[in-house]
Amino acid sequence: xxxxxxxxxxxxxxxxxxxxxxxxxxxxxxxxxxxxxxxxxxxxxxxxxxxxxxxxxxxxxxxxxxxxxxxxxxxxxxxxxxxxxxxxxxxxxxxxxxxxxxxxxxxxxxxxxxxxxxxxxxxxxxxxxxxxxxxxxxxxxxxxxxxxxxxxxxxxxxxxxxxxxxxxxxxxxxxxxxxxxxxxxxxxxxxxxx
Length: 194
Description:
Structural class: mainly alpha
Order of helices and strands: HEHEHHHHHHH
Radius of gyration: 29 Å
Mean pLDDT: 86
Largest sheet: 2 strands, parallel
Helix content: 55-70%
Low-confidence stretches: none
Strand order of the largest sheet: 1-2
Strand content: 5-15%
């Protein structure tokens, strides 16, 4: 194609797509080709400049990408030395793990709010406190907490290596007293999931 058209320069534009485009760009660069990364927002904007913002297809996207390349759009891909590449890989890995951890914590908190409404309000961060984790794991049941009472709750968590003040135990007991409860079948199912 380069010879057919008498091109002075050939530049390849690759639309950024998460991490999937990176291997294609690396492969093209290894072949000595000039490659630029195109921002998906810029491609969408170029498509709208052609009056086809809402109509998306591969052909329309390619036309928008050609338009961007003709105007000098895109940026050269980042080239990292070995140390920076290792650091970037570990940072991305950690970011993904934190995202998963946060999503899981949010799901657990949501389930706790169904099983024992009000418990999460008794702690600044329920899952980050030892006593909170003991309650969630062993006695996340308002009726059980009410039966234990303040001293019984303190004793229960103490046997599992946690100290709990009387005011904190009273706060949890008050939350247990105010907690609304699902029907038995739903409550048992929600507790089993938790």
